[in-house]
Amino acid sequence: MAILNARNLSLEEVQRLFGFEKHYNDSFSNYLSLEPLTEAEQQELKQIQQDFDRYLTAGKVSEGQVKFLAVAPLLRLAGFYRYPIEIVLEENIADIEVEDEDIKIKGRFDVLVISKAKHTKFQRYFWVLLIESKNSQIDISTGLPQLLTYSYKNLDNQKSVWGVTTNGRSYQFVYIEQGNPPIYYLLPELNLMERERSSQLLQVLKAICQL
Fold first, then answer.
1. 84: preceding bond cis by omega (within 30 degrees)
2. Cα 200 to the chain's mean position, in Å?
């Protein structure tokens, strides 16, 4: 049996192995109820932008710095640090076996947000958001194969899951839905460093947190 690392899979390989079908959706409002930001939230968001911009100006921002300077502050501001939400870091995924191909896939996701208040028939908690981060110089689309691979296994346990791949500046949200075939919807790309799209970024995160 061949053993593959999810990090090395291309999007084409992931689509072939798991049968994913790609769709585009141009509106978050089809899935989420976005609420206006408060003045305090806008000010905190501006501070996150300024802190991250200082590192961007200095050069490449590493994957670890992206998680520490952008992802973590945004998650806190959006409410993900509060019970019953819990954040899991650098966790190994359960081995995914593709029997027809005699392949086993291993991997480790960056950040998984779970809810301990929600349960499914097959697991003790509900996946709220899966996050794959890259350094600031890498295109965010490179994180999509990993995101889909990790989500695929959990579609046995719940009907859908949200994912986002980011390089700190850009954020690609993906709505992944079980089915035959499973489908993933690419939402409009958001940007931390742009005023309107950064506000929408925080609104989307808040809405996902409240699902």
1. yes
2. 16
What's the rounded Cα separation, in Å, for the pair 47 and 149? 34
- For helices 144-154 and 11-18, what crossing angle results, to 10°? 20
User: Who contacts 40 (Cβ-Cβ below 8 Å, separation ≥6)?
Assistant: none
User: What are the backbone dihedrals phi and psi of residue 67, each rounded to the nearest 5 degrees, phi first?
Assistant: -65, -40
Which pLDDT band holds residue 82 (cuts at 50, 70, 90)? very high
Look up residue 110 and give its two tokens.
């960056």
Distance CA 173, CA 195 (A): 18
pLDDT one-digit tens code per residue, 176-209: 999 999 999 999 999 999 999 999 999 999 999 9
Other CB atoms within 10 A of residue 142 CB: 15
- This prediction has a pTM of 0.93
Residue 35 contacts residue 136 (beta carbons within 8 Å) = no
Residues 6+ apart with CB under 8 A from 113: 75, 80, 85, 86, 87, 88, 127, 128, 129, 130, 131, 209
